[in-house]
Design a protein that fits this description.
The protein is mostly helical. It is 56% helix and 7% strand. The protein has two domains: 4-201 and 307-336, Rossmann fold, CATH 3.40.50; 223-299, Orthogonal Bundle (Tyrosyl-Transfer RNA Synthetase), CATH 1.10.240. It has helices spanning 2-9, 25-36, 50-53, 60-76, 93-103, 108-112, 115-126, 138-152, 166-183, 223-231, 250-258, 261-273, 278-305, 307-336; strands spanning 12-17, 43-48, 85-88, 158-161, 191-194. The two termini are 40 Å apart. Bound molecules: tryptophan (TRP). Tryptophan (TRP) is lined by residues 14-16, 18, 49, 52, 147, 150-151, 159, 161, 165, 168.
Length: 343
């Protein structure tokens, strides 16, 4: 009974995870951990946005594997299906019906201005391509509407995301308002919740850590690979006993996020005083990361070795989520004037 009561008073947080790559440590620090931190305060929904990934992933085996990897990663890093709801987007056909209905109140000009679409068009223009839309599929173009449907289907109050997703959440707000204006107050207007650790983590080559640069520290690499990747981190030529810029070191950034505060302070002081070499820092960071990831790595392996377990968790989540989704969709159908026909 207590659970039911708190569920009513808690606001709802919802976030989607696109399975386009194996999660790395910057994903954990910037997105996974802050989202999981909301479970006490919010009624939380996490879903695998598999059909969003379809705009870029065209290999069926890769599509399957990434869906499992990303689901297992969130579970391994601490998502508790008993405390929050986890499901796969494509298990909810309601999403796609709502997406169509919302697209009919979405101005085309809004999608023309969407960052991802504009970037694709700008790149084509730069390359001198005659048809700037030649490499754009409709999935990429309509991506923001599908995302609005994900959010609106669950009447989410807040959407915890990184800065790169803020335009999408703004669009979801605009679309919900547009619908309400057209058909009367029906939809919850969501709010953006920017993750507090939106700081950019520097990857092994000195650029922002991103799988598109291949400079990432994967969450579930084995110990030997992890050691190698950390050893390979690019550092400047500051000598062992010279003062170093801790805050601009990707390795120190990672250490600061996972080590006890006092340890991070000590290491920072040692680096800045010229009492620690980059090599020593690498050893310390490797030990800390390896220790931190030992248990998650075991959980991840167990889940990936028994995908049926992941299936069961996602199916149970979808079953629960669908009831909710059907309820909202019924209200929407009603609002637009679609009556249930009875023979
Ligand atoms: N676009 C998000 C990303 O690339 C994933 C996503 C899809 C999402 N639907 C969502 C995030 C709904 C929050 C809410 O990371």
């Amino acid at each position: 009974m207590r659970n039911a009561e708190t569920a009513v008073t808690k606001k709802r947080a919802l976030t989607g995870i696109k399975p386009t790559g194996a999660p790395h440590i910057a994903n954990y620090i910037g997105a996974i951990r802050p989202a999981l931190a909301l479970t006490d305060q919010y009624d939380s929904y996490y879903f695998i946005a598999d059909y969003h990934a379809l705009t870029v992933i065209k290999n069926p085996q890769e599509f399957t594997d990434l869906t499992y990897q990303v689901a297992a990663a969130w579970l391994a890093m601490g998502l508790d299906p008993a405390q929050s709801t986890i499901y796969r987007q494509s298990d909810l056909p309601e999403t796609f019906e709502l997406s169509w209905i919302l697209s009919c109140v979405t101005p085309k000009g809004m999608l023309n201005r969407a960052h991802a679409y504009k970037a694709a068009v700008d790149q084509a223009a730069e390359e001198g391509t005659a048809d700037v839309d030649a490499n754009v599929n409709m999935g990429l173009y309509c991506y923001p509407v599908l995302m609005a449907a994900d959010i609106i289907l669950f009447s989410a109050h807040v959407v915890p995301v990184g800065r790169d997703q803020s335009q999408h959440v703004e669009y979801a707000r605009d679309i919900a308002q547009k619908f309400n204006h057209t058909y009367g107050p029906t939809l919850q207007v969501p709010e953006l919740l920017l993750s507090p650790t939106a700081a950019t983590i520097i990857g092994s080559d000195g650029r922002k850590m991103s799988k598109s640069y291949g400079n990432q520290i994967p969450l579930f690499a084995d110990t030997a690979t992890l050691r190698k990747l950390i050893r390979r981190y690019k550092t400047d030529s500051t000598g062992a006993d010279e003062p170093k810029d801790a805050d601009n070191s990707g390795l120190f950034q990672i250490y600061r996020e996972i080590a006890p505060v006092e340890d991070a302070d000590d290491v920072k002081k040692a680096l800045e005083a010229g009492h620690m070499s980059w090599g020593q820092l690498k050893d310390i960071v490797f030990k800390a990361v390896d220790g931190f990831l030992t248990e998650p790595r075991e959980r991840y392996r167990a889940l990936m070795a028994d995908r049926r377990q992941v299936d069961r968790i996602l199916a149970a989540g979808a079953e629960k989520a669908r009831l909710e989704a059907q309820h909202l969709l019924a209200r929407v159908r009603d609002a637009i004037g679609r009556v249930e026909m009875r023979p």
